[in-house]
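Record type: monomer structure entry
Structure origin: computed from sequence
Chain ID: A
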Amino acid sequence: MSLPRALAIVGPTASGKSRLAVWLAERLGLPVLCCDSVQVYRGLDIGSAKPGPELRARVPHKLIDLVAPDAEFSAGDYAAAAHVELARGPGLFAGGTGFYLRAVGWTHSGGDVADAERGAQRSGAIAATHREDVADASARGAAGEAGRAAGTSGGATGEAGREAAGTSGGAADEVGREAGTRGGEVARGGGPVAEAGRAEFTARWEAAERAAPGAVHAALSRVDPETARAIHPRNVVRALRALWLCEAHGQPVSRVREVDPSRPRARLGLIVLEPAVDALDRAIDARCDAMMRAGFLAEVEMLRRAGYDARHKSMRSLGYRQLLEHLEGHLSLADAVAAIKLATRHYARRQRTYFRHQLAAHDVSGASGAVALRIAVAAPLWEPALDLSRETGAWLPRVEQFIGSIAGASS
């Protein structure tokens, strides 16, 4: 059976993906399939650079506003929704959430993640005997947050302090042991299973990370050194997901991937935006300032009044987290904006690394063939004066040929 095909524009934040996507979608007659882990949440509009009514009137945009801000939404959920859209016809993915696109293009090792999670719950992997550890880690996390807030002054924002902290060796190990990882393997108890296994696991480790930055990655390094080496120590989201997968599968996820490597489930044509770092840093700062002028702070205030706060995954997204800290009195507005800019620049660098290695023409996990076309674009596509017709002229025929093959396969 032939695999579904899709075109995708990927790259770091603020690199001009949306501008190019609309331009291409109009010319190719395709809907834009947004690939952004924040745009899936309703009400998180300005801070996620969600396309407005004018753009949506020009070109249909799918896979946005899928869930409420307090909902859990995973890469698997996104992939399921994306494949429903692809079954209706070809589309153009655009966004910076690489692991969402990877979930569309490749199967998950070891079968469905939800099946593994249910298996973890049945086996009692999240043991009731660890509940005291959860409470202790949460208490330590609250103390750590208070300490960091008290230590924030002048230009040294809380976010900058956390980014500079890195992995804090022994403290991380100690909190990691209290959060439930002992003796180099994910701890398992025979007691009753917690009702919300993954939620409890996540809350425990988030508290541990707040108490000692680097705790999650340190624990992953003990449980699965091979997977930990592939994840940046500051990428807590990826490290925590990998740690949970070790728990859910009952063994290091690297071993699961070795036995059952991921396989292509779509054929992707990638347009990868790779602008110069210094130019992109300036664009990031300018876009952050534009978001603030557009009412980003008021948007966060509105969401907070509606009952959404740092308890919810969506509100811990980049930008929303820092503005919540300002509204809660932990950061001045100037420090919050500076923290957003700094964290966004760091995030853009991680995105570059991800797209370079995780979505390569020959996938590093061994699942070759999912990427059928790869085009690198270095131009600063966010610049309004830049002529997209001229910039795309050298490679647009290759894209049109790829789209032609999609149309032929779907007819």
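Annotation 1: Residues 159 and 339 are 5 Å apart (CA to CA).
Annotation 2: Residues 333-357 form the longest helix (25 residues).
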